[in-house]
Each structure stands twice: as structure tokens, then as C-alpha cells.
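Backbone-to-sequence.
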């Protein structure tokens, strides 16, 4: 699978200094996790699930979660399971290009049961999303996943979701995160990425961010996310990829604050109409939150609507300036020291910036490097046309 493969060869050549490269199930786990990009959540109750999956891939979606948890009413769970099994079997028979598919369950027992029922269509499934993940229930989830992988012959991966009250509550947070880290380190080969449940975190305190604020404006939630990154996202052999929390808005209401997107940037590229379209769908808030995700060490994002995907992927592309800085840091002849950036606007410190530079090159593999004069607006416009 290759990001931006919906573009013509000419368009890719005009946009990218280095085009995105292929990533598959045999790639390093860190690269696979980076490649997830905008992970589109879809309720398993959707009767047109096959069409949704195929259409999403055509629009550039690289990963989807078929959800049997919070998006499904309790009294429709059995119906949702039946629909999921039927739709996956139909998709398997029809074939064709699809995103990587993950199933979000709500109970440990569902994993083995679903694997048995999905049967010959199991190769379509890359893994399972494990909600309300704690050390206690997490071990049972991972044991069930190991057994499912053995019985199906499919190398299934886990994406645990950190969203429980024991992580959110300050007095139990460190102990809970340390026990989760110990478990995940034991089963590292099974863990693709760690997801953060910002909606559940907010719900514990009866909070919900608006389309004009980001999750980082909700301090009690952003503090918890910071601790998750602190314990689980370290840039050493103990760390895991942490993905950005869900953006849950897709239409704009009445605004209180000024839009965050500068009109001059869009005017320079001749796409002012694109800016207006983004504002009408509250996507300026999403773009702001993606930038804050990146600044806080999170990659990719959970999204609920295909219109979000272009923004996540455009902002995941490595800028030419980032690439120049990263290659300078990693290409330093001797350890330590300070380098003047190629763009002449900053200093690059070889030791402190090394881990950052390695992550930049990982992202460059998955999403490519933009041309010197290509901005996120150009990439956004190209993605919005799909």
C-alpha cells in the first residue's frame, strides 16, 4: 500500500521531492504504525460496509476500524456481529484493493468467536482494537489474540486503547500506566500502536470539546495524554507509537472565534474556495489539533468521516525543510555539536535532535517528502479532489 497512490504519476512528481514508499505487513512495526495515517472508524452496523470499505480505499484511506463497541447500541450488538461477518465474507469473495482492516471489540470473548465465524475471510483482518485497555483485561485480550492468530493462521496485531478511569484519575495513573507498559513490552511483537480514547477521558469528567477547541485545550485530558506519551511513547527501545485521538466534528456550527486558517496562504496557491470548504466543515480545528498532536509526539489520527483524511495525510507529509534538517542531523560526521540549518533559520543539535530526525525519516518513508516549494495547501488540495 502506498499513500497518495490515487494521484497521477505527473501529479506525484510535481508534489514530492521523494514520493511515499510501499509499506506492507512484512514491514517493521514502527513503519506500519506510522503508515496508518488517518484511521477511519465505521460502525459494524453499516449495511453497505463493503461499499464503504472499497470507496474509502479509493479516497486514500489506508486503515479502517470496523467498530462493535461504543458506536453500536447494546441491543444491536448481535445484529452488528452478523452484519460484520457477512460483509467481510462478501468482501473476500469480491476481492479488490482495500485499506488495512481492524475490528474493535467490546469483550475478550468476541475475538475467538468472530475469528471462527469470519473463517476464510480472516486474511482481510490485520488485527483488533482493544478498548478500555488495562493490565488486567489487557492480558486476557492479548492471550485471546495469540490464540486467534494460531487458529486462523493470520498474524493479527493489537491496537490497545488507553481510555480507562484508572489512567485518567491522577491518584492511580502512574501505577496503571506502568503496569500497561510492562505488559505491552512483554508482547511487543503483537502491538502495532497505542491509541488514546480522548472521548472516554472527557466523559469521565462530563466534558466535551467543541469544534473550535482542541483536545489540548481541555487540560485534564491533555495532561492525561501527556502522561501516556511520557510512559508509553519514549524514544528508546521501551516506547510505542501513540496515535492521535479522535476528531468528532464534520460540520460547522455558529462560530465564536476567528478561523485559524490564514486566507493569504490559500490565496497564494489559488485555492481560496478550499479554505471556505474547510471552514464550513470545522476542519480548521482538525488541522490545528493535528499540528498539536505532532508537537506532542502523536502520529496519525482517529477520524469519523472520509473528509478528514486529506488533512491528516497532507500534514503527515514531511516538508522539504524537515527532511533537510533530519538528514543533516543523521549525516553528521562526528557525534555531538551544532549545525546551521540548510534553510538558515535554526540550529540543529546532533544529539538532542537525533531521535526526532529518525522519526522524520520514518514518516518520509510512509508519506513522502514534499518538494521545496510545495506546501500543505498543495497536498491538501490534491487530496481533497479524490
Amino acid at each position: 500500500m502506498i499513500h497518495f497512490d490515487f494521484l497521477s504519476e505527473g501529479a506525484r512528481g510535481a508534489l514530492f521531492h521523494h514520493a511515499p514508499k510501499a509499506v506492507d505487513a512484512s514491514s517493521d512495526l514502527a513503519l506500519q504504525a506510522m503508515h496508518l495515517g488517518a484511521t477511519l472508524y465505521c460502525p459494524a452496523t453499516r449495511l453497505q460496509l463493503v461499499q464503504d470499505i472499497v470507496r474509502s480505499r479509493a479516497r486514500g484511506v489506508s486503515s479502517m476500524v470496523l467498530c462493535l463497541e461504543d458506536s453500536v447500541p447494546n441491543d444491536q450488538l448481535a445484529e452488528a456481529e452478523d452484519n460484520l461477518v457477512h460483509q467481510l465474507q462478501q468482501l473476500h469473495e469480491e476481492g479488490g484493493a482495500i485499506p488495512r482492516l481492524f475490528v474493535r471489540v467490546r469483550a475478550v470473548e468476541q475475538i475467538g468467536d468472530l475469528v471462527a465465524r469470519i473463517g476464510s475471510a480472516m486474511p482481510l483482518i490485520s488485527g483488533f482494537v482493544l478498548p478500555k485497555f488495562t493490565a488486567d483485561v489487557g492480558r486476557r485480550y492479548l492471550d485471546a489474540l495469540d490464540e486467534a492468530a494460531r487458529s486462523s493462521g493470520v498474524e493479527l496485531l493489537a491496537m490497545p486503547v488507553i481510555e480507562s478511569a484508572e489512567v485518567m484519575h491522577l491518584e492511580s495513573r502512574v501505577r496503571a500506566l506502568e503496569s500497561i507498559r510492562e505488559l505491552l513490552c512483554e508482547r511487543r511483537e503483537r502491538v502495532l500502536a497505542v491509541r488514546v480514547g480522548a472521548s472516554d477521558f472527557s466523559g469521565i469528567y462530563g466534558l466535551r470539546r467543541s469544534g473550535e477547541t482542541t483536545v489540548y485545550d481541555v487540560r485534564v485530558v491533555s495532561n492525561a495524554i501527556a502522561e501516556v506519551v511520557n510512559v508509553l511513547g519514549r524514544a528508546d527501545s521501551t516506547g510505542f507509537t501513540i496515535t492521535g485521538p479522535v476528531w468528532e466534528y464534520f460540520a460547522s456550527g455558529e462560530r465564536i472565534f476567528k478561523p485559524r486558517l490564514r486566507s493569504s496562504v490559500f490565496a497564494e496557491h489559488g485555492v481560496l474556495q478550499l479554505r471556505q470548504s474547510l471552514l464550513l466543515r470545522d476542519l480548521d480545528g482538525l488541522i490545528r489539533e493535528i499540528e498539536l498532536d505532532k508537537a506532542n509526539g502523536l502520529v496519525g489520527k482517529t477520524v469519523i468521516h472520509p473528509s478528514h483524511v486529506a488533512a491528516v495525510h497532507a500534514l503527515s507529509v514531511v516538508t522539504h525543510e524537515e527532511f533537510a534538517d533530519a538528514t543533516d542531523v543523521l549525516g553528521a560526521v562526528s557525534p555531538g555539536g551544532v549545525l546551521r540549518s540548510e534553510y538558515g533559520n535554526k540550529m540543529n543539535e546532533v544529539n538532542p535532535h537525533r531521535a526526532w530526525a529518525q522519526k522524520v525519516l520514518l514518516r518520509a518513508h510512509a508519506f513522502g517528502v514534499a518538494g521545496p516549494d510545495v506546501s500543505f495547501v498543495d497536498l491538501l488540495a490534491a487530496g481533497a479532489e479524490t
